[in-house]
Design a protein that fits this description.
By secondary structure, the protein is mostly helical. The chain has a single domain, classed as Farnesyl Diphosphate Synthase (Orthogonal Bundle), CATH 1.10.600.10. The chain is built from 17 helices and no strands. Helix 9 crosses helix 10. The longest helix is centred in the middle third of the chain and has 28 residues. The chain is globular.
Length: 339
């Protein structure tokens, strides 16, 4: 087991667990990509153009990869996992299109967000189109339980985004409230992506529960690392602009923990830049310095590491295999990707 990660600029040339998982699932993921590109087509020209800008850009495709890999872990030999994996990617992409309108970020997957090119209205409507396409794919699998899992995740994600919006600039947000938000807006789709695999494979309830828990803990670790990276990482690792959370007034775990231990002067700084949203050019650098001095970034990464450990342990119910081992290593990589 790797030690808790430190934020650094060190890069390892060895294939990452994500790359190894892609290699294992290359044939299946090629089929998923073909399906994704086919189903985002429309006679309304703006729809495929805008969708291709985001979906066609690829990204990590981590969530659909998890669906495919977990299906193979469960010995599934049908083809429904292709449609469910594509549905997962469409749900994720739809939420990104909607998020960019709300967040007003300048960078998405290393490029200009769709809403800055086509406008907010087009981004919202194409996001709705992708949601609809996801439900088309789910229905085609003719598996009501899988449909229920992914449709429930879609509503939970929406609730999480609204919770996050309502908590904007709320410096008194608690850790419990924060974890509730990221469980909904991020971890819910990870959990659904992994849970549908044993469901379509007809595996036991214990295995379905284990893979759901794996996805949930993986998603929590993933979001915690993203929140730390926003203050101390690199755009190439994050896929968005550094300091977005700070500029938008989002209250994440590093800020919550730093504020809890702040003296009067530092608390005043946080209230000015977050609550009053009165920010100067030098404030982001100062915020990072405060977070580091308070140990808030490292303690956030430590929590992410603990969730990664729990995700790894959830898979012990399955016999050892390349699929299980690589999925377990992926849990460590989600935290260690910043190294």
């Amino acid at each position: 087991m790797n030690a808790p990660a430190q934020i650094s600029d060190h890069k390892d040339s060895a294939p990452s667990p994500a790359e190894r998982l892609w290699a294992l699932a290359s044939a299946e993921m090629a089929a998923v990509d073909t399906l994704i590109l086919d189903r985002m087509q429309s006679p309304v020209g703006m729809i495929p153009d805008l969708a291709k800008h985001l979906v066609g850009a690829g990204g990590k495709r981590l969530r659909p990869l998890l669906t495919v890999a977990c299906a193979r872990l469960c010995g599934y030999e049908g083809e429904s996992h292709y449609k469910l994996a594509a549905a997962v990617e469409f749900i994720h992409s739809a939420t990104l299109l909607h998020d960019d309108v709300v967040d007003e970020s300048a960078l998405r997957r290393g490029k200009q967000p769709a809403n800055l090119i086509w406008g907010n209205s087009a981004s919202i409507l194409v996001g709705d189109f992708l949601f609809a396409r996801a439900f088309n794919l789910m229905v085609e699998t003719d598996n009501m339980r899988a449909l229920g899992i992914l449709s429930n995740a879609s509503s939970v994600i929406a609730e999480g985004e609204v919770q996050q919006l309502a908590a904007l600039r709320n410096i008194d947000m608690t850790e419990a409230e924060y974890l509730e938000v990221i469980s909904a807006k991020t971890a819910a789709l990870f959990a659904a992506a992994t849970e549908v695999a044993p469901v379509i494979a007809g595996r036991s309830e214990a295995e379905c529960s284990a893979l759901k828990d794996y996805g949930l803990k993986l998603g929590l670790a993933f979001q915690l690392v993203d929140d730390a990276l926003d203050y101390g990482g690199f755009e190439s690792a994050l896929g968005k602009s550094i300091g977005d959370d700070f500029r938008e007034g989002k209250v994440t775990l590093p800020l919550i923990r730093a504020y809890q231990s702040a003296d009067a002067e530092t608390a005043g700084f946080w209230k000015r830049v977050i609550v009053e949203h009165n920010q100067k050019d030098v404030d982001l650098e100062k915020a990072v310095s405060i977070l580091r001095a308070a140990g808030a970034l490292q303690s956030t990464l430590d929590m992410a590491h603990q969730y990664a450990v729990e995700a790894r342990e959830a898979l012990n119910i399955f016999p050892e295999s390349d699929w299980r081992n690589t999925l377990q290593d992926l849990a460590d990589y989600v935290v260690d990707r910043i190294n």
